[in-house]
Structure formats: C-alpha cells, structure tokens
Amino acid sequence: MVFQNTGPVKPEVEFWAGDDKKPANSALEELLRKISTEADLPALGSSVSRVVQMTSSDGEAVRNLANFILSDVALTQKILRISNTVCYRTASGTPVTTVSKAIFLLGFDTVKTAALAMLLVDGMSGKNAKSVRNELSHSLCASIVGREIARRSHFKDAEEAAVAALFKNIGRVLVASHEHDQYDKISKLVEAGTHTPAQASQQVLGCSFDVLAEAVLREWNIPDSIVQALTPPAPGVLKPAKGRQEWLQQVAAFSSAAARLIPSAGTPGQEAASKAVLTRFGAALGLDHAKLNQLFAGVAQETRVIASSTELALHSEEHEHVTSPAAEGPTSGAPAAIATEVTSQAKPDRGEVESGLPSELLLDIIDEPQGMQVVERHASGKPMNARDMLLAGVQDVTQMMASGRCKVNDLMLLVLETLYNSMGFRFATVCLKDIHTHQFRARISMGEKNAERQADFVFPVHTARDLFHLALENDADLMISDATAPKIRDLLPAWHRTLLPDARSFIVLPLVVQKKQLGLFYADRAQAAPEGVPQDETALIKTLKGQVLAALHSR
Question: What is the DSSP letter of 95?
Fold first, then answer.
C-alpha cells in the first residue's frame, strides 16, 4: 500500500475546539434536499441501520450478520477476500470459504465494521471517485482505530466506538460525493490556512460537517449514543471519561485525528502532530508514546487489507484536488493509493427399506462422476467441486470446535452455510424442537426468501407417515433428487407442498441424540439433481452432521 503525502503535517488543535455553529434550519434542509435528490440515501440508510444495530452482546448477532452479508453476493466476496489475506490467514493456511468462519476468525466487530465500510463505498463512491475514496479511506482507518481502543475498554458495548469513528467523517463523504464543487471550495479555504474545517464548511455550506452528519444519521435511525458521539469533546487536555457517552466522544475524536496521521507516518512534521494528539488524548485513553506507535502500525496494516478489499485503491490516472494530510480538511490525509494485498453410483439395491422410506431417498453411495470442473455447476446448481468445499467446511468446523470458544448456534450456522454453498442449494435451514409448542420449528436459515420461509417452516412433533417424520424416526439422512416422482410426492406433507411448492431436490439430515429427536437440517433447490451425491461427499456431509451432534451431546 502506498499512502499519498502532499505536504507537511501540522498539529490538529483548532479542530478540537468545538467551534461549530448550528446553521439555520433552511441551510441544512436545502443541503439535505440536494443530496437526497441525487443519492438513494433512504435505501443506504436502511441497510446501514440494520448492521449498526447488531451488537456482539446479542445471541442472534452472528446469525443476523452472516445472513445480511450472504444476501449480497458482492459483499460476501469482499468479506471472504479479507479473511484470506495474509493479515488474517489461519495458522493452518486453509482458505476461509464461509462467512460464518470469517466472523469466527476475524471477530464479530471486525466483520461488522468492514461490512459498514463496504456499504458506504458501494453507496457513495460512484462520482468524484478520488475525493470520495480519500474520505472513505479516512473513515475506514478511523473505525479500525476506534475498534482497537474499544478492545481495551471496560464499558458495555464498547464496539459502538468503532461505528461512531466510522461515521465521524460521513458529512465530508456526503459533500465530496454529491456537492463536489462546494467540497473543493472548502478544501481551498482550509489549505490557504485562513479557516478551520468547521469555519470553512460553515461559510460554504451554511452548516458544519458534524451537523450535516448528525442530521443524516438521525434520518437513518442510528442509535442516539452514536449520533451524540460525533460532538467534539471539550478543548484542551482531556481527562479520563466519567461515563460511557463522554468516552465515546473522546474515542471518535481521537480516531479521526489519528486517521489523519497514520497515512503520513515517517514524514516531516508527523512527530510533532503525534505528540499533540498524545498530549490531548493520552491520559484520557491510557496511551503513551510506545502504545500510540504500536496502534498506528497495526491500524495501518489492517487498513491496507480492508481498503483493498473494499475497492478503495486509487488509480494513478485520476487527478483531483488533494490537500495536506495534516489539515483536518475534507480531502486530506486518507490512504491515497493502496496496492492490492490479497492472496488474491448407482446405489446398492437395498429395495424398500423396513423403515417405510423408499430406497431411492436415502443419502448413499453412487458412482463418482467423471471430469469434475472446479468452476462449473451441474444443471441443478450444485458445484462440480462440492467435495473440496465440503472438506474445507469440515476443517473449519474442526478448528472452531478445537478453539474452546465455540457456541452450538454458531457451529450450526457454519455447517448450514457449508451445506448451502457446497451443494448449491437455494434455501437452507436448521429446524429444532420447541418443547413448549410441541413443534419442530426453523431457527436458522439462509438463502432465497429465508426470513419468509423460516417463519412458516413449522410442523408438529407427533408422528405422521410423511418424509420428515420417517427420517427422524429412523435417523436416516435423505437426498431427494426429484421431488415430483410419485413415490416421493406421496410422502411430502401438505405444509411442505404449500410452503415450497417448487422444491425439486432437497436434503434432510435428522439430528437425533440417544434416540431423542432434536431437529434436522433441510436444504433445497428448484431443480432436480440427477447427479446424486458421490461417496466422498456423502462421508463429508455425515461428518458435518456428526460434528453438530457431538456439540449437542456435550451441552
């Protein structure tokens, strides 16, 4: 990664003075109206708000974040790219192929922050690319600083600091993207040294960047604690915060200031600027010179990795106005040129089984198909390299279980995602017994219309002669290659035919521990799957199921 440096670094003292003035409502409303007419802010805001409100203290957070990411193919690819970079690669060197494993490996807060940054990149980087990417790079860098500071904090839900740091710069991002002429005027005033960024934005826009950011975040229904964190702390040397909200303000301000300094590390004047930052924030945030340098180095490395995967690398052919990295101005100091750093059977004739299940339903051995291609799929949608993907999933689950910090729900999510991706299913769910309602009910799901289908994927515990109950009673793993065959159609319950009328092939993996029926994995496609499941894939699928059963048994 190459950071662009265009001038000496100056201490950022004036920015901290909090001299913003509230604009007339008309000025702010006019600016918001102009931006909104060009940007799909409501849609972007809805997505951002959903991610912001996921917190690591919520038991459903990992599943919700994974589902959100999986619903966006481009976002999924970027998260997996980050997970497979040198910065995050596992000691074993095995590739990360699932979002669930990425969250486990990188940590919930890291993936959440990266997802938010990517949403902003996708939503705002279409025009005035260089300036916008500069500002987005600054936001990303600040959020990583905030996350690292939060890790040392004793405050509850401290990860909000990373989100507040990310949004500290959102006013600049919006103006750079949608009012670039105004943005350029502000840049020139700041560069001339006649105005602070707050004064320049007030003069040109009629409101400060922070006030604009606050208005937009409130429109997006971002939690009030994060919005209030954008308010600059008191001027001068700061003391340790007495409460969480004051601490959030300190971290957001420090993260923004640090993000202006990190790209210019080693340049003339940078040491003086770092000393000014340390003098102001050191005592409040428990930092000394050595800790600050260590923080800057770690954040710089991680920013390179994530910025590359979020497509924030700048192209040399773009020529737009860039000011000094030290000036707290709208174009200053973001990572300006970032080099990509990504590592880059015929079944045995068993006849009609005694269980009452036709033999063609059982997940069993078939002849290995020839000429499998890694980049191809069967007509059903199943990848040709399903075996390799299943094997990677087994390794991921093994590593998660060996870590000693594995939750059963997270493990089931990882197995479900592995099955979903490896076998090319369109909908997949884990169904568990609800002892209060005496029903089997979908608890975790992914894929097409997953929320809608999960809500209605419910059937009674009492025994019935249908495919699902027979599978549970006999603990039989099933693979239905064509659900329209008369023998199979007769075993499908009415609720399944109503909920998933177009399911042509699907898999059922019962979860039975010591003869207790706990639930099942279910996943389907809208196409028939005449290719079947070869022996090695069958063994890996059974291994994945066995790992879940082992975790359930140990509870």
Answer: P
